[in-house]
């Protein structure tokens, strides 16, 4: 079979990582994610922006995990193009378990950081006085980092301890090694987060609309809110909702595995877009980027 269009192994089990276009896409997006997010992290760290606002604490966690995710996609894409063969029915268990565990950890750190940043933005708009007096404090930075990493590592350890150790034919991805207990936990967690996020987003939109600010500032805040909502729904809510629905309807396990692989693909898009958006609508990032690159800009950005 022409390797360019392969989406399944010779035994007809679906495995998208065999496809050449998927892997080339992984490498290209991974390269952009690695470059953008490593530079993003460098700006925040070098200019000590994380001391100015806890938004940048969430951002540096997102950017560091985005950097690692980009590197992961580059390596996986290259390895797949070189080594994978549709005639291989199963893969080295230990290597794939390590790969899957790392994937889970990266996803949790990135997505928790991104979602916490959205909630933080909502609190900033809805309760500015409370936010300024209680949240926007340097001493909270270490607690934020500790909480996100604790949650991410706890979920990852749960995944590792519940890994499916049967000798059934497996693909080298997250779902192939997912145990039943972790699957139930994952379904409950995603449903809980979706139900929790909807009222938070509605509350945030309501407060953004009723803001009494000058038109330019309000337009920029609305634009930032729309960005968060669009990215959250299209690249996070939609992919994970498809996974949950496929699990509820007991879809073919290899098809569910494809959905997980595509979710990793969508998350790396978020990692790329995040820096591009910040360059246009985040003044500290824009100013420091221009300073580091020694570029003068006459474009007016959000204050």
Automatic annotation (TrEMBL):
Q: Which regions form coiled coils? A: none
This protein's UniProt keywords: Membrane, Transmembrane, Transmembrane helix
- Where are the bilayer-spanning segments? 20-44, 104-131, 143-161, 185-209, 230-249, 255-281
Its localization reads: Membrane
Sequence ranges assigned to domain G-protein coupled receptors family 1 profile in this UniProt record: 36-277
The UniProt record lists the keyword Nucleotidyltransferase: no
**InterPro entries in the record:** GPCR_Rhodpsn_7TM
Source domain of life:
Eukaryota
Any Gene Ontology CC annotation:
membrane
Query: What protein is this chain from?
Result: G_PROTEIN_RECEP_F1_2 domain-containing protein
């Amino acid at each position: 079979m022409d390797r360019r269009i392969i989406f399944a192994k010779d035994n007809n089990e679906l495995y998208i990582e065999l496809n050449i276009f998927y892997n080339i896409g992984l490498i290209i997006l991974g390269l952009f994610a690695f470059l953008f997010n490593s530079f993003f992290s460098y700006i925040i760290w070098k200019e000590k922006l994380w001391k100015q606002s806890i938004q940048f604490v969430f951002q540096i966690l997102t950017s560091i995990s985005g950097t690692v995710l980009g590197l992961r996609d580059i390596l996986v894409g290259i390895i797949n193009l070189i080594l994978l063969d549709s005639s291989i029915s199963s893969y080295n268990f230990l290597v794939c378990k390590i790969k899957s565990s790392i994937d889970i950890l990266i996803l949790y750190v990135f997505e928790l950081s991104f979602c916490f940043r959205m909630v933080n933005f909502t609190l900033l708009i809805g309760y500015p006085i409370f936010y300024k007096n209680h949240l926007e404090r340097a001493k909270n930075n270490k607690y934020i980092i500790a909480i996100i990493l604790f949650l991410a590592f706890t979920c990852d350890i749960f995944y590792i301890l519940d890994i499916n150790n049967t000798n059934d034919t497996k693909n080298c991805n997250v779902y192939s090694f997912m145990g039943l207990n972790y699957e139930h936990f994952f379904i409950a967690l995603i449903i809980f987060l979706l139900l929790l996020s909807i009222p938070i987003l509605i509350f945030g939109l309501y407060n953004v609309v009723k803001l009494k600010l000058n038109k330019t500032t309000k337009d920029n805040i609305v634009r930032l809110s729309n960005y968060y909502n669009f990215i959250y729904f299209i690249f996070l809510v939609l992919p994970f909702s498809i996974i949950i629905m496929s699990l509820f309807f007991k879809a073919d396990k290899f098809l569910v595995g494809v959905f997980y692989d595509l979710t990793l693909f969508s998350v790396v898009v978020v990692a790329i877009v995040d820096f591009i958006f910040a360059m246009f609508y985040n003044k500290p990032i824009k100013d420091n980027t221009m300073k580091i690159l020694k570029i003068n800009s006459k474009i007016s950005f959000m204050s």
